[in-house]
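From the pipeline queue, job 12 of 40. The input is one protein chain; the requested action is below.

Action: predict structure.
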Amino acid sequence: MPQAYRHQPLASEDRIRLVDLLPAWKRDTPIRCRIRQVRLEDARDKYDALSYVWGAREGSVPIACDGYELLVTPNCYDAIIELRHGTRVRPLWIDSICINQSAATCSTKERNHQVKLMGRSLLTAPKPCGLHDKIYGLYAIFEEMDIQLPDPDYGQPIHEVLEEVTRAIISSQQSIKLVTSERAGHELPQLPSWIPMLLTPRPDPVSFPDTMGYLGGRLYSSSRGSKTYISAKKKKSELDAKGRRIGILQTKIGCSIDQTAEMADMKEFRLFLQACQEYCQSWSAVPLNVVEILKHLTFRDAAMHYTRHILFWHDIMLYPHCRIVPPQQIVDDTICGNQEDPLTVVCDYLCNGQSPNSKLAREIQTELNRDSNWAFVRTDNGYGGRAYRTCETGDEVWLLAGATNPVILRPTGAGFQYIAPAYLRGMMEGELWPDDEEDLEILTLV
């Protein structure tokens, strides 16, 4: 019976282990591999990374490693079979093999150090992450930001890990902007809404403003740089905050597009274009000048260069009740010709029109398409702008201490569910933040 494989201690703290998976033509050929040590910097871009261990710590399926028997979990074994080449050695970093999993004190110390190095290894190789190691793999990055985090513990439930890490980041940074810069919506339903998606699996690939307080590449200051409220109370799944309630979402015009709408994808583009038409028609009775219309449309500074174009775009959205461009001129610049459906005419005009006006309007539409998963919103007290599509009428707009942008919260019986950041004209630079913060309310995010 082969002897069990024993990990050799790492020669230095900047080293990792790599698995050289030996080739085999046949799928049922027993797995053979070698383990070697390399400096992390020397291994950049020279291996693929894999994580399949943390749900089941004990291996049960044997493979041959340097002539010894190494037990791996069944799902790790299946993954190795799929990754094995027929003719060449494949270098891999596999957490369950490359990090010593034994219970010895020296192994625990090594494991804690190795998972902190994972932040760097994740930047050097493509990797389908597990949940625990995805979080711990960010440790190296957070340490560069002087954020003190709890020691890695793979036996701790993932929702507790995420909550502890989030609280540690808020406390170290004295800022809540990690929470308030992304939308809520996790694949782990037991998580509270305030756990940032930066730390969790994303259910869909969405176009979204940069994290850590940036909207459209710009850092705002809706709370005038105020400090985050850090409560001594740390009730499980709850996060206390201080803020000011601004109003209620009265109007939401948007669609269910998960990704940015491209004109080449006609189905999704029509959905977003319909929302744009409805938005423009909803403002048609309001006396706004062209600059104000643009300010409500987008949070991207780049769009401000299109001020002279927006008038044509807005007018075309009102077809067939245009005020500047004659409706027949729009029809003449389409392929479909005269149609009863205004959406079809406008869609054809923007995609295929060759007139100067259609080209100007197309520039605006292309810019707006970048954020098609953001709804057009308006509050009960007249503030307009954009918020992520998961918001609903009846949600509340709040300014929170330590946040850089307004947020959308949904009242629940136990407190408020965090929904998403928002861009609302007239409050992005602290215009509505109180001079006396004693007037702020304490609220609980759940």
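Job complete. Residues 260-372 form one domain.
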